Structures are given as structure tokens and as C-alpha cells.
Amino acid sequence: MADSPSTHEATGSEGQQRKSTPPAFWRFKIALSTILTIKVILELAVTFGYPNALVDELQGASDSALLMVMVMEGRGQIHPTDISPLLGALEDTGHHGIATDVRAWSVEYLDINPGKEQKPKKSLELSSFGRFKFALSTALREQTIQNLGALFEYPRALMDEIRNATNSALLMTMHMEERGQIQSADISPLLTALKDLRLHGVASNVEDQFNGHPPITDSPLNPVPPPNPVPSPNLVPLPNPPESDGDKGKMAAFIEELKETCHTLYDKIQPIPYIKEKLYSVDKVFIEVGMEHCDSRGSWKTLSSYRGIFSVAKGTSRIQVIEGEPGYRKSTLALQLVYDWCNEVSDSPFCKPDILIFLNLRHLGGITSFMEAIEQFLLPQDSVLERQDVEQLINNKNVNILVIFDAYDEYPDQHIEDSFVAKILKEQILRHVDVLLTTRSSCIPPACGPRTGRIRLTGFDEGAREQYVRKAVTGDDEAEVQRILEQFNTNPILRDICQAPLFSVMYAHVAHEEEEFHNVRSVTEFFLYMISCFHSHAQNKVSGEKRKQLQRYASNHKKLDKFAFDSLTGANQQLLWDKKILIKKFGADFYGLYVNIGILVEEEVINRNRGATVAEFIQYRTEVHFYHKLFCEWFAACHLAKRVTSFWSLFHDFCKRVNPYDLQFVYRFACGINPAAAKEVIKLVQKKQDGDKFAVLCALEQKDSADDVLNTVRDLVSRDVRISENDTKLLQRTTMQLLELASQKEVPIKCLNLDCTFDSIDKKLAHIALKSGLCLRPIAPLKLLIIRMKATDVSEPELISILGYVGQCSNLAELRFEECNLPVSVPAKSIPSELISRIFKVVHSSGKYHLDLRMGQWGVFGEENIENLCSNVITVKKEDPLIQQQAMLLLLTNSVRDNRSVNCLQLDRCMDQVDAADGIVTLKSGLSLLPSSVLKKTEINEDDEVTEEKMIGLLAYVSKSEQMVELVFDGCILPTTIPARRIDTTLIRRNVKVSYTRYGYKMKLELGQWEVDDVDVIRKLCSDGLTVSRDHSVLLQQSTILLLEKSTQQNLPVTCLMLDRCIDKFDVTNSSLVLTSGLSLPGVSSVMKLNVTESGNMSEDKCLDVLAFVKESKDMNEVSFDGCILPTTIPARRIDTTLIRRNVKVSYTRYGYKMKLELGQWEVDDVDVIQKLCSDGLTVSRDHSVLLQQSTILLLEKSTQQNIPVTCLTLDQCIDKFDVTTSSMVFTSGLSLPGVSSVMKLKVTESGIMSEDQCLQVLAFVKECEDMNEVLFDGCVLPVSIPTERIDHSLITRNVKVPCCANNKVEFNLRSGKLESKTELPDDVRIWSKDTVAKQASTIMQLMVASADKIPITMVRLYGSFSSVGSDSLSLVLHSGLCLPRLSSLQQLWIGTEDGREVTVDEWTGILNYAKNCQLLNKLELGRCLLPWLDNNPNLDNTKVVWYPECRVDQYILQSGRWQGGNDDQVLTRKAYASLVTKYREYWRDYEWQEQRRAERE
Hints:
The protein is built from 53 helices and 60 strands. The protein is an alpha/beta fold.
């Protein structure tokens, strides 16, 4: 500590002698601040004639009352001996009650007679100091107050008073003024204390506030009508702080302690190491870098601001990874998020989490748990919280928590698979928290799953660079801004290097300090220049022997080099060391220099021993780390570069153990430091995966002879060179430099791949413009150019421009396009003649298709490919690219020209129209297929129908294709006949074969009819069974009917014919079945079995129509019905006796029945089917048809006859009443169900509340079912009790159970006649909209039981389930139709509506009346809704009413019939309320739109 305790004690004593105002006046001011509302403040400001600027400041202050008290003190309106100006103003504005209270306080605290007025002079100086005190009180945090109290040696009783005060910061400010530690002319004791506490940023800000507060000047204020006076509360004594309210108090304490710690992190930013005179708060230097997010398809999309980090990840994992290259300000971004939370930046989403935990992973080596990390690095030594308190808060799933893990690439334990960090990332623990992790792109945690969101930082562009220079370096000095920016603009390499924000920031500050600039050509030169500036800065401050010593240390740092190398390449990477170890290792002088110039950074860490005294608390240990990990990599590279040529084993071992992308700058710096090292590094790097790209960066760093550089270039361009969209601008420029060097030296370049980087052709310069803004000149020695443009359409002018560019690449032999859509043709005259004259090809994708430069059309490339296609099959598919389709058609055209025979052409789902006159086929792509004189066979494969007109056109196409001998159809539906007169006789003379492979047919062209061509195909189809479905087209139905006719002609048995929902009626006249399509199906003797599938009810007449068709199908011996509801009986007289004689079996597969045709009745055919149905349970539902209900009743009767037990019978919303006369249950359909002895369990499903009579009717039915031992009520709410005298005693004797929900949480006790809860009611009861009706009913009944038994119900939450209020305001109606009745023992109620619901006036008053009827309710909360405006909301005497328009973000409390809250905690006027509703109405509309977009993406 800089000053001893005695120094502070002396300072405090001096202050005791200088104090001039009694402490009682401060107590009076605190009391006064508690009674001033914003309305009273504004009226007083008008009365006192405050200037507009001051009124605005008062209105916008975070604590307007405190500021008003200080301003009144500064202007002499209140004084320790006189408060008459204030009293007069209060009386003038009608605030008589407040004036009475103030007068009483003046007697109690000041002991003055208000009648004797001694007005002090107005003191502008005092006003300015008063404003400073207010600013100071808002800046002091709880931990800072406690530390200052310890330093100033305040008595323990005084510290307890300050700690427990309503506004401890204000009271601390007053005590510092009393003790002389701050005065209107001097605050040096406070500044010294803050610096002793290492709060340099706070000290700097306090000093700026003290020096920068302007005095308040008078100016007239236009008077405004004063608002309506507010009634004054009764006189109360000086308020004491409220006692901690359980978790709420712990939460507030935890948040305060976190913010105190985080403040020390973001408030001491050092943009450049050696400039230590001024520390910055992060918001003063933060500039947004370029950002991209990875979408669900793996593509990177631009993200406009860091504020959208979590919004782009909705619906995915709670974990977001922010990745970036070294120096891309990942940690600065993380600290800005921390700043937003601590300072509650309103337009930042990062102010919304309840708790934010920031942990730098560099410090967490050896830390085994999340709680240990929080205790060690975030909680103060004298934390008021115990470990279990923090654990309880962290594990509370209702608390919105954001955890930021910074610098994962520096985490020492990243290799430990079960570390607590890995478990959080794997979502094995703390799955309810949001996690944001920063790391290098090369070090993505393996624990992160595929759903983890990813954000990528892309660095500074020119706009961001200029913005930073203005904001953090030059201020308003425009000339200096331009001077610095000019250096970036005149050196393209420097500009690309400074895409990394760290380099840009360092260079900007150095450029501001230095008059002359150093021109750099590589990152190594840049870093060497920066470090030399650091050393020069230190050396310029000394001379003589000291200067020589610093120069020696600047050039000789071998120990530091080896130390950095070992730290980075050890088994566990270490980046943090104890100060004492480093001093012992390097010596105090060497260590002091590197700390002084800022390369090494000291960090004070509190010794955290719980139970320590205040004096022990102010003890620190010093940890040391490099200013940035890049500096550690620099010194490690120095060691590697010097050793690589002498100790090959060291280098090879290093390359094996270290991934180049993890420590890329070690490799790159080594190449720049030692040319000999560069050769070996590049050679080994190229062997790594994707090593060529990294080798390019290493090659740029070389400082070597021209021959050595050229050899490196020659080696690199002998393989494929790629410029990718994911490459940094620096890497792209470096690659282009190597290509230009190769071009200058005429080194052959094998291949250049522009991977999604091509943008356009600059026609003036004839260069390729890349998306990054760089330009690629024509490259003479290039052999192959690949342009990959993902899902991009290339226009004809663009293709011509590209051909113009490649025409200037004199040795280019091939241009290849990948994953793009190219124009079908190019005007031949537009193609450069030099391309036609040399051996050059333009190829698409696989290399099979090329652009015919003479014709400007796409064709098949290579004689071997052409021969292969012509001798086998040329296929044109619907999904083929346009140029591929054209290439196939051009091949046909060229084959005619070359008189080359083509074996077969297959058109696969690509045919659109056919011209019946000239036989020209138009494809769906728009291309045209002409008849070909060299084509032998054509195959047509279509999913759709081929109409008669299309068929005639295809026959014309065949007729005009002179050598074609066969036309084959497959997969499509064809006409059953074609008029013979429309068929060209040429086809008959040429004996052309037209076949239909689907059914084994060929067409007899003379008749235009199909005949059997392949009996085996037909036999296979018939043995598999045939189907006629309502979903089939008329052509397909016709084809099936034709096939049935052919099967009869060929005497081929059809195993089964299925008629699927297609029967209309039976035509007696034609003895045929008429289908719904209008087609007729005559009786078919070849069909053995008929299967009729229908949906819904099947009438008696329709059943008889089917039996009539069976009669006409003479060999048919079985008909089955399925999927439909059949009559329970058919009159025997209506059934044809022929069917009885043929012993036709009629079955009803659904219930295992067969019909006894002699009687027309169903009998059991398959007991196993009935047993299966009965064991699965039977249902009678209100939604069932009468026939289906009849069938179920019949099945119940059969089960009784066969003595088959029915596991469960469900009566689903179908009960009407119980008929005592017949002892049966009457359904809403009118059918009756007598008692069934075979049923073991009854389940009654009803909606809403069941009355006492309804319950007793069900129990009466249960009595008639002798073996029934359980009745379950599900989805409904039962009465709390039924008189026992109304319950039949036989049910009690049979021990019938009556559970009231499927989960058995509630049961009706027949002995007591009451509902009973089987499980303990939780403290927090939740009814969700997504809950089933049964679950909601169960929960409501549990609540009813608790209320009836007077058991306290702590909390009930309605999450989206609330619908309306019952007409009597004694119940809340849910969307499910259930009602939540009045609960007399309910203590807290939360109603969360659908997102953004606008509650009506009637609904709102109904909710308040419901709350009033719940006698013990002490808190009513409403969220995610918009409430109506009422001039006077009904008062709830003992119930606190809280409204959250969003979801626990802005809070408004109902007080005296008005809403009060928001950021300024003010009473809402009608105008303010309307503005609030408009704001949140837009918010919810935007939220709904985003949710729809997310749903569409999913």
C-alpha cells in the first residue's frame, strides 16, 4: 500500500477539524430525498426558476431526488439553519402535507425554528461541488465503499451504518465531506486512496468529474402549468434499509459484488503497452469489428452488430462460440458485453441477463469447479454471501444467467475432458445458462456440439479503422486523423496486416506518437517495428549507463525467448506466472524494463482467505502475463528461429507436437526472423493438412535472396493454389503476390482455384475483381483456372467478359466452372479469336461438357465420351443442368452431321409438349428435340399421364426418325386405346415396336390397341394383386380394368382385387360396379378375393351392391371389408342365395367377425382378434358415428358371451345420463349401454367441471358392471366433495377405486366422499398451455384440495394457459376450457399470457376482482401482455400488483391505482403509458415475425 494507515488517519483527523456542517443535516437531506417524487421536483424547479438544462438533467437523472436535494443545497434553498425557501415553495405549489412533514423533520433533525429565516447567499461554487458529490455517489460501488472505509479507518459502527443505509454511496460521500477527504477545492485524499486500491480507472474518472463540472448558471425557464398535487404520505422517521427479502436480497448482493469486480476489468484498458499515463474504460475504445454468423446450412452470413449475437441463435444451443484470428479483439468484445450488463445499456441485449459471470480462462488452470472459479476470481474477500447462497442462485432455473468464458485458446486445462468448463460446454451441467465463449479459430473446443452457435470476427475494415482513430487516438484533430489514415492507405500490405484490430490499434497509437513512419512489408517487420518503438520510448527517458543497459536488454533476450517457447509448447500451455519467479529467472532490471515498456503486464490478485480482517483483505499477490499472447509467440519464435538450423530434432519435435494453426505466428515470425528457418518451416508446413495455404503466409515473411524466394514460389505454385472466401484479405493479397512473382519470372503455375471469391470483371483494367475488393491481373504462365461460384447464375455478358480475361492468359489451357449455372450459348462472334486459334477448352464441372468455341454452344467433350454415349444410352434428365441437356441434344445433332449411329435416347421426366404435326419434342427446360435420322430407339420415362395427343405426337417423332425401330414407355399412365386412323402407316410398314413395360403390353398399331406382349409380366402383376383406388387417375384405373380383362382372356388368376374408396354403386342393367370416376367394372371371373376399403360409414345398400358384384364374379369366394363401419345386421331376405350356395365368406377384419349369410348377422370368426381388441381396451367417443358406437356395443356384448375380459372401456365425452329404469348408460347419440360384466376398468374423459349428479350417474353405471373395480376420471375437474349418503355402499364394499387423473396425484375417496391429493403440492405450481387437459385438471384439483384444507399455496403460475375470467370473477378460464376456481389459501399468482396479448378492460377488472376474492393473495404478477389504461385501477389492499410488458425486463407496480416503474421508476401518465404500449406492441410484432422466420428455417 502506498500510504500507511497512519497517513490516512492523519488525513481523517485533519478533516475532523475542518468539518463545518452537522451530521444531522445530512440525515435531514436523506429523509427529504425519500419524499420527493418527480412531479414535486418538477414543480419546485419551476417555482425556483431553474434553467431548462438543469430541469432536463433533473428529469433524466438516475436518482432525481438526490440530485434535487444537492441542487437546493447549492442554491441556498435548504441550509442547516434555514429551510424557509423550500417550505414556501411547497406551500405555493399546494404540497401542504409534504411541507408539514419537512417542517417536522427540521425540528427533529435540525432543531431550528422555521419562523426565523436566515437565508444564506447563493453559492455557485457550492452548486458545482454539490453536483460533483452527486456524480461521485453514483460512481461508488459497495465494495469500493467498504475498501475506502477500511483505508480511512472509519469506526466499525459507522461502516455498519453506511452499509445498511438506503443509499450507502450518498452517505459515504457525506461522511467523506465531513471528515475532509473531499472538499470543494481539494479531493486529493480520496484520489490517493483510490490509487492505493489499484482503482486507477475510477480515480481518473473521479478526477475528471471534479475538474469538469461547470457551475450552474441562471437562465429563465418558461413556466408550465404545475401538475396535480400529490397527497403527502404521513410523517415517517428517517428510513432504514429494508431487511433482506430471502433470495431477492441475496440476488441483489451477488449482482452488486459481480459488478464491482467486473468494473475493475473493463475500466483499465491499455490500447498500447507502454502508454500507461491514461487507462481507458472499454466503451471509450470499443469499435465494432466485422462479424459473421454460421447459419443452419453451415454458410457464413454477415452480422451487423454484436447486439445480434444471441438473436441469430434462437432455437439452437444455448452456447455461442465467438472465434477469430489472433488480435481480432475477442477479449475486448467480451469486456464490452460485460460493460453493457454492468451499466445496463438500454439498447444492448446484454443488459437483460439477471446475472453475468465473466471468467478469463487463462486464470483457471487447476480450478476444478464453477463455484471455485466464482469464489476465487469474482467474489470479494468480505462477501456477504456464503457458498451455498451463490450455488442456490446459480442453480435457479428461473434466473437468466449468461456465462462468458474468455480466451479458451489460453485455457491451461483444455486437454482435460471432464473439466468443469468441458462439462458446461457439453451441456452436462448448468444446462439452463447461456454460455458465450471466445477463442481462436484454430482452437474450437471439441466439447461443442453441432448445434453450438458460431460467430466469426472478420476484423477492421477502413471505416472501423477510421472510427477508432477518431474515438480513441486523435479526438477532433482532423489533420492528425488524415495523417494517420494516409499511412494505411499508401501501404496496402500494412493496410491488410491491420485488418487485425490489435495491429491497427497499436500502429494508430504509435503513429500518433511518432513523427515518421516505418514502411513494413510483413507481419514480422511490423511486430519488430512495434517492439523497437516500445524500447525507444523507454530509452528516450534515460541516458548514460542506464540507457546502454536498456539497449542490451532490448537486443539480448535469450532467456525470455526460451521461457516463452517452453511455456507455449509444454504439455500444458502456461501463460500466467508469479512475479517473484520471473524476477528470480530474469533479474530485477530486465524484468523491470519489460514491465515498464508494457510487454509484460502485472496483475494484482487478491489473496482470498475467507474470514480475513479488513487489514488482511488489502493484501495482493502479483501475477504476470504477456500484454497479448502474440508477444509470447514472438519471443518463442525468436528462440525457434535461432535454434532451428542447429537443432533439427528440436524443430521436428516442435512441428509434431504443435498444430501450425494453433500457434501460426510462431511459425510465421520464425520465417521472418531467420531465412534459413523459413525453408525448413515451409517444407514441413506443406505436409500438414491444408498446409499450402499456411505456407503462403510463411513465404511472405521471408527476407532472403531472390533465388531462395523464387525456389519457394516455384514449389508452392507447382501444386493447386486456392484463393478462398474464408481467407483473410492479407492471405489473399499474399497469394496474389506469389502468383505475380511467378508470372514475372515465367514460372509455370499448375492451377488457380477462385473458391467463391470471384465477383466480376473490371473491363477497363481487364482484371478479375474479387469479393474482398482486390484485383487479379492476367497471369501468363497459368495452366488451369477454376472458378467456383456456389448456386450462382452467370449471365451471357459475364461469361463473355471472363473469356476476354482468359484470352490474355497466354498459356492458359483450360477454364473450368463449378457449381454455377452458365448460359446455354454464347454468340460465336463474341468469343476472342485468340482462344479459338490455340488449344483451349472451357469445361463445366466434371469435365464431360465443354463450350464449342466455334459454335458458342455446349457439347460433350472427348471422342471416347462421345463413342461411349452413342453406343449405349444418351440420357436427358429433368434435374440435369441446362448446358448438360443442351450438350446431349447437340451430340444428337452432330451425330447426324457425322453420320454416327445412336443406339438409344432416354428422356427421363423431362418431356413437356410434343407437336403432333412435325414430331418436335419440347423439354421442360425449354430446349427442343428434333427427330433424328441416326437414332434407333427412344425410351420415355414419366411420372405423369401421357395423353392421347402426346402419344400421337411421339408416334410422329418416331415416324420422322427414319432409323428408329422401337419406342418404349415406362412409369407413366397411357391411354388404353388410340384411334387407328391417327397412326401413320409408315410405322406399320417399318414394323416399329411400341411397348408398355409397366404391364407387359405392346401396341397393335393397325388397331391402336394394347395386346399382351409378355405373359410373365402380367402373371406377376396378378399374383401380387391389383388395386383400383380413388386416388388413381382415370387413365390408371382404365389400365387396371384393361389388365383385369386381359387376365380373364389369358386365364390368369388374380389373387386379390382391392377397391380402395372408389365404389359408387352397382349397375344392375350392365351387371357392373360403377366407380366414383364414372368407369364401370364388370364382374371378373379371374379374381379370387375382393378387399373393399372404405372410410366412414357403409350403408346397408352399399354392402348389398358389393355382394351383387361378388355374385357376378363367378370364381370369387371371399370378400372382406376394412376401414369402414358396417351395419350390425343385414336382412337375410335381401341376400342372394347364390352366395350361400357358393359358400362365399364375408368377413369384417376390423373386429374379427364373419357374416352368417343365412341370417344376415355377424358372428365371431377370430377369437384372437377380439381378445386383442379387448386387451387393448375399447372406446366409445362422441366423435364416433352411430354405426361405430353400435359396433363397439356389439363387441362388448360378444366379449361377455365369449367370457373375454375387457381391460378398459373409455367413454370419451359421450355420456348423456344414466337410465335407472333400464340400468344402462345413455349416450348423446341416443344409444344405450347396459352394464357389462366383462369390463374391468372404466375411464371417463370429459372436459370442464363435472357436477355432483354427473359423477353419481357414472358411479351408478359402475355398480351395474359387476367385475369393474376402478373408474378413472380424466381431463375433467370433480367436485371437492359429495355427500356420503348419496354414494352407493356396494361400491365401497367392492373397494372400487376412483382416481381422478392418469398420474394418480388425486383420488376420490368413496368412504369420506372427498377428493384427496396423493402427492405433496410443490411451492411453485405451474399450469402450461402445452400441458394436456388431463394434466391441467389434475393440477387444478390438487389446488382445490389444498384450498379446501386451508393448506397455504405459495405460488401458482399460468404460462400461456389463461383465456378469460369467469362471469362471476370467481374463476379463471383456461384455453383448455377448464376453470381455476377461487383459491382462498393462494399467496402469489403469476399470469403469463400469449406473447404480446392485449388484455381488455373487462378482462383486467375481472382479474383484479378474482385476486380480491383470494383472501390470502399478497402478490399478483402479469407478464408478456399489454394491459389497458384505466384512470383509476381498483385498489387491492394487501396485494402487490406487478406488470412485466415483456418478460421480467421492465417492471411496473400498481400503486394508488396508477402504474409506476420503468428505467426512471416514475408514475406513468396516460401519454407515457400510450408510448409504452406502442413500444411493446412493435416489440411483440417483431418477435412474432422472428419466430415465424425461425419456424420457416427449421
